[in-house]
Design a protein that fits this description.
Blueprint lengths: L1 E7 L5 E6 L5 E9 L2 H5 L3 H7 L5 E6 L2 E2 L17 E2 L2 H15 L7 E5 L9 H13 L3 E8 L3 H10 L4 E5 L5 H7 L8 H15 L3 E7 L7 H10 L5 E7 L13 H13 L3 E4 L26
Parallel strand pairs: 4-7, 7-8, 8-9, 9-10, 10-11, 11-12
Antiparallel strand pairs: 1-2, 2-3, 3-4, 5-6
Helix pairs in contact: 3-4, 5-7, 8-9
């Protein structure tokens, strides 16, 4: 595994391009989140709720080269998965990305499996790498972001109980979700949410529901109210994400005002939520933008 290229954005984030032994490439991204100066720009309404989230050096790593989930809003999903990264490749990716970003033995990082690939479809290598990274002290904390591969969620609670779980919902009805995430036809919302409850009960850890705000699709007051009805506020937090631009895809980025309104409605129905600022957009390293085939966003047309 060879580090082929690095790009650093004006916001300080660092994107790394890796070439694997078989010639396939993957990417990783490092950034500080939350950056308090960015969060404070969201206003006093939010800063008071977000000050309890510690600033972290975050390393987001790939678990697969490409992804077969096919989320319609994601550049990685336009690049079919060709390879599961080995445990050693995942660990190397974290070690080298954190070193280039400036993490040290005294300045450790939070590792997130959330770049290229669905982590729970490369389950054993991700769990083994994750446990090694935590056990060796390379990672201060770890999280897995998944669309909800239900059979593996119960395994995860047993095999890696120290991980934080993020489940990408992005919708409040099965029909809505299936239009965004094709695999949702296999795992209905209530089944995934029930698995999230089980994970929280088994690990005594709250679960975070990722919600990508897409104007005109899932951003209404009714959507926020339905989300509140779906999720138990004692078990779930909600991370509100803004879509990052990808050429050729039929979506647009929500405005901050739109995101604030959605946040307020979620808060009114009793859910703890926060808006996560995008990091690495200028180097195409933000959520959903990572892909190693530059023309993949045009492959649908």
């Amino acid at each position: 595994m060879v580090l082929s290229l690095t790009k650093r954005a004006d916001d300080g984030s660092l994107k790394c391009l890796w070439t694997l032994g078989i010639g396939t490439q993957v990417e990783s991204i490092a950034f500080d989140l939350p950056a308090r100066k960015v969060l404070r720009q969201l206003g006093p309404l939010l800063s008071a709720r977000l000050d309890d989230i510690p600033a972290n050096h975050v390393i987001c790593v790939s678990s697969q080269a490409g992804c077969n989930i096919g989320c319609t809003f994601c550049a990685t999903g336009l690049q079919p998965s060709a390879y599961n990264l080995s445990t050693d490749e995942i660990v190397t990716q974290v070690r080298c990305t954190s070193m280039h970003y400036g993490c040290t033995e005294t300045v450790t990082c939070a590792v997130t499996f959330a770049v290229m690939g669905e982590p729970l479809l490369n389950y054993q290598n991700v769990v083994t790498a994750g446990n090694h990274l935590l056990g060796s002290g390379i990672a201060r904390s770890e999280s897995v972001s998944t669309v909800g591969i239900v059979p593996r969620l119960s395994d995860l609670a047993k095999d890696a109980p120290d991980l934080f779980l993020f489940i990408s919902l992005h919708a409040t009805s099965d029909e809505q979700r299936q239009n965004l995430i094709p695999v949702a036809t296999k795992y209905p919302l209530r089944t995934i949410i029930s698995a999230g409850y089980d994970f929280a009960e088994a690990t005594s850890r709250r679960v975070t529901a990722n919600y990508l705000l897409l104007p005109g699709i899932n951003d209404t007051t009714d959507d926020a109210i339905r989300l509140g009805r779906l999720l138990d506020a004692t078990v779930f937090n909600v991370q509100i994400l803004l879509w990052n631009e990808i050429e050729g895809l039929p979506y647009r980025r929500a405005s901050l005002e739109n995101a604030l309104q959605f946040y307020r409605t979620i808060s009114d129905v009793g859910l703890h939520s926060y808006i996560t600022p995008s990091a690495g957009r200028l180097v195409r390293g933000a959520c959903g933008q990572l892909a190693t085939i530059p023309t993949c966003a045009r492959s649908r047309h």
